[in-house]
Each structure stands twice: as C-alpha cells, then as structure tokens.
Amino acid sequence: MQKKNGLKAHFEWRGKIETGIKSKITTMEELALAYTPGVAEPCLAIKDDIKLSYELTGRWNTVAVVTDGTAVLGLGDIGPEASMPVMEGKCVLFKEFGGVDAVPICIRSKDVDEIVRTVELIAGSFGGINLEDIKAPKCIEIEERLKASLDIPVFHDDQHGTAIVVLAALINALKVAGKDRNVRIVISGAGAAGTATAKLLHNDGFADITVCSSKGIVTEGELAKFGKNPGPGSLSAALSGADVFIGLSAPGIVTGEMVASMNEKAVVLALANPVPEIMPDEAKAAGAFIIGTGRSDFPNQINNVLAFPGVFRGAFDVRASEINETMKLRAAYALSGLVCDNELEPDYIIPNVFDKRVAGTVAQAVAESARKTEVNRI
Q1: Is the pLDDT of residue 134 over 70?
Q2: Distance CA 158, CA 21 (A)
Q3: Do residues 129 and 64 make contact, with C-beta atoms less than 8 angstroms apart?
Q4: How many other CB atoms are there within 10 angstroms of residue 122's CB atom?
Q5: Closest alpha carbon to 135 in 218, 219, 64, 75
Q6: Beta bridge partners of 76
Q7: From CA 351, how far away is CA 97, in angstroms rounded?
Q8: Where are the domains of the chain?
Q9: Rounded CA gap, 174 and 163, in Å?
Q10: Distance (Å, whole) CA 262 – CA 179
C-alpha cells in the first residue's frame, strides 16, 4: 500500500520542489529592478569582488545535492534520472528542517574525474556541496578532491551525517547503560558510512573499535588500527564480549545468538535500511539493552535528517569554507545534549526528527566551532 501511495503522490506532485521568487514583478519599475537594467550594477559589483556573490544573490543559502545515482537508498545503481525523487526529497528536508535552499544535481557519469570537474565548474552558484548516494569507495575520493579544490563546504552525508548521529546516539546510550569510553565497539560495514563512523568515534576518544567487512574482521589498513586486537575472524567472533554493535551493512546478518554473546547491557544500533541487521524484537529477546534502527516505526531512529540540515545551516550562517572534524564532533554533542539526563531511557537516546530544537541547536554548535577553528568568513 505504501509503495502504491508513494507512486500516486509523486504523480500528483510532479516534483517535490519548485522555484519561488522574492522580487515582485508586477510593474515595469519592478521588472527593471529585478532584470535589466537593474541587474547591471550587482553584476559589476560581483565582478570587482566575487565575495559579494554571497550578498547579492541566493548563493549564501543554497546547497547543491549532487549524485551520480550509483548507490540510492537500498535501490543500488539506478542512474541519475531515477535518483531524482530521492534528491528532491533531500532538498525538501534541507528546506523544511534547516531553512536551506537546495537544488538536485544528478550527473550522467560514473567517472570520478568527470564528476569532480562538473561540480568544480558549477560551484560558483552554490554556498555548499552535499554529496549523496554515490557508490563507495569513489565517493571518498570525490569528496577529498572537492574539499581540496573548492572554498565552500563539501559534505558527504552518507558518511558524515551518519557518523554524527551515531556518535550522538552512542554518547547517550552509554549513559543509560552505565558504561564508559572503554567499551568494545564492533562496526559492521567497511564502506563509506562505516569508515566515517569509525574515524569520528576514534577521534572522540573511543579506543577499541573493531570494523568488519563482508569478509570478516578488517585486519589491514587504517580501519584495523582503531581496534586493540583486530585479529582475523568473523563478525560473530568480533561480537563475542562486545559492548556495542553498530550496523552499517546488510539486512539480517546478525543473529540472536550473536547478540546473546555480547556483554550485559549491550547496545545494538542496527542501521541497515529498510531491513536492519537484526530486527529489534529478536535483538531484545537475545538480551540487547538498547536498540536503535534507521526506521521510523521503532524507537531510537538514527536518521541523518537530525544532522545535515543543521550542519549546513551553521556553516552557511558564518560562511564557513569547510566542515571540519571539530564541527562534526560538536554537532554530535549538541544533538545528544537535547535529551536531558533525566529524560534518558533505553527507548529514548536520540531526539525525534520532528523536535524543532534540533536544527537550530546543531547549527549553533557548528557555527561556534567554525569560528573557533577559524574557518568562518563572517
């Protein structure tokens, strides 16, 4: 029924976003101000000082939502045109939750060089770039290259938005469980989201993180350095005696027996969507103390919408040149702090996506961090 209604709604909407105008054009004088000859002076002003493009156009508050359509939601490589409904949806979330104007840019290329060059060429129209649903590992290279070449924030939400919300949820989950930073964490998923999450947790002081890929425990490379003993073995072996499971991988790969082998008051964040690594009822029956998923029909929804609108709002408010690690960490702590200690409970470790405090609180933390790390330009 939901699939049928979704298709019907999109036929009716014929797109979820549209262009609005701030300047009225009801008289010849208004026309002359909004278009020719009134546009000449702002054009010349920007020509002389390109920074004025942030003052005289909507660039200051506009983000490009960029994809090649190779890793869309759980749909996979469906192409740029087919990814448009998702990118439009992302634009709606930017506007609704962060007051940020967003434009979908769906590129007909899977080539890293072409994607990077395309974004570089259009960057002057935007205040920031949000990379979305681009297949790993090329999404990591694309982000790194664009961050190096552009002077506006570049943010891959599938990586960093996920990491921010996971860290926020984990901070509060450990409070409820009465555990400290010495917990043993297992992350299932060595792709973009898993890598970014492991890095952010490590940078926040968690020292025992074991990352598993589809082949088992990762024993080589950067991800292997985050764990105290990343010896070879399976996901099942990694989970034995673990305190925290973070799933950023595939549906149904965790069993009740695997959860039962974890330490007491285990935290299970099974975030594969729409079907998690283990369903909440099975995890709870196996002894999990705190359970989170990416779904809205269970408690503790770990949803990126809790992060990216506020992150960009804060970055835009101070015209930041980048979104750095400090800004991401402060965003996570600001988000976790919205659930007071006396409110925390196993089924409430993260704010609801409709909590109107979220975007503003995250934005303020990001803006303050930008100033402290001196990447602000106003």
Answers
A1: yes
A2: 31
A3: yes
A4: 15
A5: 75
A6: 72
A7: 14
A8: 2-152, 160-378
A9: 16
A10: 14
On whether the pTM is more than 0.90, the answer is: yes
Q: What is the pLDDT of residue 73?
A: 82
State the alpha helices, DSSP H only, in the chain.
2-13, 28-34, 40-48, 53-56, 80-98, 112-122, 138-149, 157-177, 192-203, 235-239, 256-260, 280-285, 308-317, 325-336, 358-372
Q: How confident is the model at residue 215 (pLDDT cuts 50, 70, 90)?
A: very high
CA torsion through residues 334, 338, 339, 342, sign? positive
For residue 147 the two structure tokens come to 């961050």
CATH class of the domain comprising 2-152 = alpha beta
Listed in order, strand segments (DSSP E) in 17-170 are 62-67, 101-106, 128-131, 154-156
Annotated active-site positions, please? 35, 90
Question: Quick one: how far is CA 61 from the chain centroid?
Answer: 18
CA-nearest of 267, 244, 242, 140 to 191 is: 140
Mean pLDDT of the 241-259 span: 97
Most distant pair of Cα atoms in the chain: their distance: 75
Q: Is the pLDDT of residue 238 over 80?
A: yes
SS3 (DSSP) at 251 = coil
CB 244 within 8 A of CB 186: yes
Question: Can you give the length of the chain in residues?
Answer: 378
pLDDT band at 230 (very low <50, low <70, confident <90, very high): low
Class of the CATH domain delimited by 160-378: alpha beta
Extract the tokens encoding 310: 């506020």
Does residue 242 contact residue 209 with C-beta atoms inside 8 Å?
A: no
CA 74, chain centre distance (Å): 16
Mean pLDDT (whole number) for 351-364: 97
239 forms bridges with which residues in the sheet?
none
Run of H or E including 367? helix 358-372
Taking a C-beta distance cutoff of 8 angstroms, is the pair 188, 247 a contact?
yes
Contact, 50 vs 92, CB < 8 A?
Answer: no
Question: Is 112 within 8 Å of 141 (Cβ atoms)?
Answer: yes
Enumerate the β-bridge partners of residue 104.
65
Sign of CA dihedral 228, 232, 234, 236: negative
DSSP notation for 16-35: S-----SS--SSHHHHHHHS
Angle subtended by helix axes 325-336 and 192-203, to nearest 10 = 80
